[in-house]
Amino acid sequence: MDLGIGKRIKDKRIELGLSQKELAHRMGYKSEAAISKVEHGEDNITTDRISKFAKALNCSPGYLMGWEEPDSVEDPRLFEVEWRKRGGAAHQLILTAEEEKIILTYRAADDVDRRAVRRILGVETKKDTDALDA
């Protein structure tokens, strides 16, 4: 495997604030050992897996292959969000890289930190949190 691909995967993972364990979860792997092997060039990576990594890291396969430059931090990105409403289809939102990082950081947080964020944003009240703890 081209070590450059592994380095770009690692750099993108770190840029997004993801641990190897979180990326492994997104990829459907049971442990972060598989991610470590890819990042260190110890595992062959197929084009199908490159596409899957690209999707998990919100970048293009071309970027991971070294064919494209990374997006600048200020550039908005297309971030697909599925809303499971009555008969609803997938919708697309435009998020900045900063907004995307906030969402990914929230997803990686533990339950206590997530609750604190929801309280700060007014999505959840202390009363809601206390009811969950009871």
Written account of the structure:
The protein is mainly alpha-helical and 134 residues long. It folds into 2 domains: 63 residues, Orthogonal Bundle (434 Repressor (Amino-terminal Domain)); 57 residues, no CATH class. 55% of the residues lie in helices and 9% in strands. The chain has 8 helices and 2 strands. Strands 1-2 form a two-stranded antiparallel sheet. A hairpin with a 7-residue loop joins strand 1 and strand 2. Helix 2 crosses helix 3. The longest helix is centred in the N-terminal third of the chain and has 13 residues. It is elongated. 13% of the residues are buried. About 11% of the residues have low confidence.
How many domains is the backbone divided into?
2
CATH class categorisation of the largest domain: Mainly Alpha
The number of helical segments is: 8
Termini separation comes to 51 Å
Going by CATH, the architecture of the largest domain would be: Orthogonal Bundle
Using DSSP, what is the number of strands? 2
> What does the average pLDDT come to?
77
What percent of the residues sit in helical stretches (DSSP H or I)? 55-70%
**Poorly predicted tracts of residues:** 72-86
Structural class: mainly alpha
In which order are the strands of the major sheet placed?
1-2
CATH topology call of the largest domain = 434 Repressor (Amino-terminal Domain)
Along the chain, the helix and strand elements come as HHHHHEEHHH
Looking at the structure, what is the overall shape? elongated
Q: What fraction of residues sit in β-strands?
A: 5-15%
Give the name of the CATH superfamily of the largest domain: lambda repressor-like DNA-binding domains
The major pleated sheet works out as: 2 strands, antiparallel
- CA-based gyration radius: 17 Å
